[in-house]
Amino acid sequence: MSLNAEHARQPRTGGPDDPATQSAPQAPRTEPDHAPREPGAGADSPDRGAGQDLVSQDERDKLTLRLQQALTSFVDSPREAVEEADAVLDDVAARFTDTLTERRRILRAGWQDTHAQTEELRLALRQYREITERLLHVSAPAGQ
Length: 144
What we know:
The protein has helices at residues 3-9, 19-22, 57-72, 78-111, 118-139. The protein is mainly α. The chain is elongated, with a radius of gyration of 19 Å. Mean pLDDT is 74; it is low at 1-50. Residues 1-61 are annotated as: Disordered.
């Protein structure tokens, strides 16, 4: 098995620099009804915090399996293997784009109101920073 095939089979776990592994579980907060809420912080919201995955674990598992199958089928069907790997990459990119578009929509809805309070703006800025830093971390070369 090639090094790339072995790497693709490895589960993706966060290291010490992975923001998804840095947040500790928090106790539920009880806030008065008038307290500002973080944009997109509701229980049914797609953006419940910075530690939330851009792609769900179930989707990652499915995509990883598809990529692994493409890698292992290369010897018998090289063209089909590459086409499948291309399709997997396309699916991953589409899921990232959809998730980020929805998160940005939710964030904007929370602060673009002309009556947004400073605390709501601070929370929105923090979420923008956390999401942007995660994306920059993903874009860094391996090992950095």
